[in-house]
Structure formats: C-alpha cells, structure tokens
Amino acid sequence: xxxxxxRARHVxxxxxxxxxxxxxxxxxxAVVAPYDEPLVATSEQVLRDDLVLLxxxxxxxxxxxxxxxxxxxxxxxxRAAALGGVTTVVDMPxxxxxxxxxxxxxxxxVAAARGRVHVDVALWGGVTPDNLDRVDELAATGVRGFKCxxxxxxxxxxxxxxxxxxxxxLRRVATTGLVLLVHAEDxxxxxxxxxxxxxxxxxxxxxxxxxxAETQAVAAVIAAVAETGxxxxxxxxxxxxxxxxxxxxxxxxxxxxxxxCPHYRVLDAPSTAVGGTLAKVCPPVQNGESDGLWEGLRTxxxxxxxxxxxxxxxxxxxxxxxxxxxxxxxxxxxQLGLPLVWTAARERGFTLVDVALWMAQxxxxxxxxxTKGAIEVGRDADLVVLDPGATFVVEPGRLAxxxxxxxxxxxxxxxxxxxxxxxxxxxxxxxxxxxxxxHGHHDRMEPRP
Length: 449
Hints:
CATH superfamily: Metal-dependent hydrolases
Low-confidence stretches: none
Number of domains: 1
Order of helices and strands: EEEEEEHEHEEHEHEHHHEHEHHHEHHEEE
Number of strands: 17
CATH topology: TIM Barrel
Strand content: 15-25%
Oligomer: single chain
CATH class: Alpha Beta
Shape: globular
Largest sheet: 6 strands, parallel
CATH architecture: Alpha-Beta Barrel
Structural class: alpha/beta
C-alpha cells in the first residue's frame, strides 16, 4: 500500500507536463500513473485544477555561512528554501568559520546542520593554493565537488587561485570523479580598473568591474578544460559574451557547464547608490545583458539557474552607506528564486517544464544528487505545489532569510508556492526533517528526525 497519492491535472515530469497520480511510499516516488488510475493509499490529496505539481527545486549555489558567522544560518536559510519550493541546497565552502577546506571543516558543517535543517543539505568543498594536497581528503568526506575563485573572495580564509594553476587543480579534482566550480573573474583585469576610494554609483562600480573581467576568466577556464579534458562548471555567468564563449566550447565537445542567477536576468544595474549596495554582487548586474542570458538558456549554453544566495551580517551598516566598495556583496534571494524566474520566463515563452529543468533536474545532476530533481519513479518524494497564476508583492517582513533587505522589495511577482513536500511529507517548519547528504555515504545516512 502507498503512503500518499497526489492527483494533479498538471504534473511536470522529465517527459513534459501531464495529468497524473503520483504515489509516494517510504519517502520515495513509487508510481507515476494516469490521473484517474485507482491507487490504494493511506491518504490521498487532489490538487485544484489550476495548481501545478513540480519536483522540489535543487539550489546548488547557497551561502549558509554556518557555523561561525551571524549572517545566515542552517535554520533560517533552509526555512527560506522550503517556503520558496527548494527542497535541497548545496552549501558553498566559504564565509563560515571554519571554511570547508579540509575534513575538520566538513565535520563542523555537519555538526552545525544536524537537527536544524528544514530541507536536505549537501556540501561543496573548497580549493585554494594552500590545500591542493587535501582534495582527496575532502572527496572522502562526502563533498559533492569543489569550488575555487580566480579573484579576491572577500575573506582572508579562502584565497583565490592563479589562472595558471587551473590545469593542475582540474587534474587533481578529476581523479576524484567530481566537478570543479569556478568563480570566473580575472584578478588582473579587476586590479587594472580598481577604485582608489569610495564608489557611490552603480555606473562607477561597473567601470571598476568591466565585462572583460568575466570573459578573460572564462577563456582561462576553457583553455584549462581543453588542456586537461577535465570537467568544470562556471558559476553565476553574467554576460552574453561569456555565454557565447561557453557555447563555442561546448560545441567543441568540452566537458563544461555553466549557470546563471535570477538577479542577472531580472534586475537592471541600479541607478541609486543605496539601491546599488542592495544589488551588489560580483560579477555585477550589467545593463543590457538579460537577453543574452535568456538566449543561453534557450540554446543550452547555460544549463541551470541557481540563487547565489549570499546575505551579509544583519548589523552591517555598510549596506546603507551608499559606498559600493565598502558594502558586502550578495543578494538574499533563496525564498524568491522560483517566482522571480517564472515571472520573467513566462513572458518569454518558456514553460514550467523549462523552469524545472533549470532549477531542479540539472542542478541535481551537477551535484550528483541522483535521487533528486525530477518526478520519476525511484526519486525522493520532494515536491512543490505551485499556483502559477497567482501574484504577490515582495514584502521584506515576509521573508525567512535572516537578512530581509532586498532589491526586490515592492516588486510584483507571479507564482505562489502553496506547499512543499520533503521525503513524502509536507514540510512542517516546527519540526526540521532535513538531512546532510554526503556523497558516497548512502549506507551511513542518518534517519530523518
């Protein structure tokens, strides 16, 4: 007997959208049947005809900054994820204390997460010039892959690589069977355009962070992949020129993938200083790049859309200073990713099948999460019920992120998450049921709380 059956007129599967009855058992999807097929279950839920059943989203670019910082945390960050339809996040290896550069860093992360996560959490490890000999050690702990930077990370604990080190790092990572994620900005280009004092307009900020910083770094990544044949992934692509380079590399058969983020396709470069500090990210939001990024998703040069959720400290007065040099970069957007993307995607003729591919299936594939990302027999019963036509206005006070200040304040969005399911049950924010998913450790997986 099944535990639950969900019947919906609109179910997004890897084969498209169709009416279906989805049967759940022991936290997994046991059957995907025609809508009217009789199924025996302990409980049954019939969704309204205008609602859509989606796979739980997988966000592979999330900075939870826990333990050691007061910026975001496992509890607040995963609450926001659940409210936004995200059922699995992969945590970035910097900003926490300790950073995730060795086995001790992984153990600290796992200990901090235990009993405090409302969705499932996986971990990226980090690679710096100082821990190249620890790649195998990190892989053995269960990280899903490795993240490196080619420019200043903003933290002394996590140093960037030089471009000439990329081939060596790719070879080391390739021996683990995992992927190398690269923050692609060229340090020399940024240094040549660097500011000598406060930067009080976003236009000035863009002059100090030219598009060429990204394209130079992407070209270096492509050259290293071509030299080694090893797999790499470019994070948060922000320009159409970078998309074009990646598309050419992929046409040549290179093992390269890439992502973009909601802010690059929804926001324009802000004109006001204070608005600019709220929208400060690196690479920055450029004017006139959105169409090229959407085309990259349409052609497949870009694979996925993830948040780069990266809040700063709640007490950081630099947010409102108007000085983009001093302001900490990052946009808290984990709870808003699905409606941000759907609002803009539907206007361009994309469907929720596309959105599920970008935000669930392909991120799961990137991180090797083979039981996540799709409504398919054998996968985890992680699901989202979406009202795709409902609208709402972003109100910071309704966000679960610890940092609620947002450049999306007051924006009208379409697509309301009405329910999120994790492992076969609706998420109950009073009872955290998420687990830390360590690669290759399925035989030692802890029971859900």
